[in-house]
């Protein structure tokens, strides 16, 4: 008997032996049966994997070449620093290559002579310190025995030091670290050679480099690039001028201290402190203060302590007062911006960032300043920080007027005044 529906009529049956109705696709599924993958999807997946591979390769290459890029950045700013001298010599008819060589040769002679003189002084003082070490040790032992009522002897201290495990481990580590020190020295010399070569090419081929850069830009962009280059040269020169001025002030202050304490070679040590503390970032301060302390120790251990205290105090004065003021005048940036740029540069690139951060920020600020539209500032005390002339009386003037009105009301007059 055929099945009937609710109205009593015979329900239609599907043809074929299978009477089970076909399963319906779930709700929200619009794909037709037998739909194929879009043709663009495989190509999109291949492109995505290719871009990811290129990104990974570029990241790896950047990490491998970051040392070279930093050296090139240092060389570029060094070339900007010597650009005025090279251009001035080239303007008098000298070839730029020869002018650049003469500038570098002069710098090399000055640096080599300075460090040779300091090396001879340091070697003599080290020999003197080694010869007088027993006397220094006896004076320290006598001070300890007198102050703390102890009974120390130099012989016992020397024997304990010679037979100590610490000295043996130190000797073993020093012997094993000779190869590492040699490797670091060779690496440092290679970096100096790399920076020197790149800076020489940047300075000697400056016009050619600018022509190559401008040849791929439209005329309007060429003018902007050349203006940015001139700003960078000006700001870098101003930064070096401020560093030289701070080196002069620092050297003078330390010379007064060393001369007052009677430390030998005070002029040379003052020049050392001024140059090293200003032109070697981050660790320059410690290198600069270590040598005067060492020489002062040969005179008296107490003098070495005084030198240490003065170096620390002067460094704080220079970091928070002198450097921001001089930098803001020579490089034309706010002291807070100068201090913040040094902190940011140190965090990003370490010592190199601390050295080039201020001229880089000053160049960027001066270049972008031409594209910022400025307006006249409203006359408001909240903007100018004080009342302008004619906007209101000063407190002393208002007090004088109040005193005059009070006298007029009471009828009193001063000497030489007529009563109303």
UniProtKB/TrEMBL annotation:
Residues 1-21 have a biased composition (Polar residues). GO terms for biological process: transmembrane transport. Its main location: membrane. The chain crosses the membrane at residues 44-62, 68-86, 98-127, 185-204, 245-263, 294-317, 337-364. It is a multi-pass membrane protein. InterPro entries: AI-2E-like. It comes from the Bacteria. GO terms for cellular component: plasma membrane. It is found in: Cell membrane. Belongs to the autoinducer-2 exporter (AI-2E) (TC 2.A.86) family. This is AI-2E family transporter. It comes from Streptomyces aurantiogriseus.
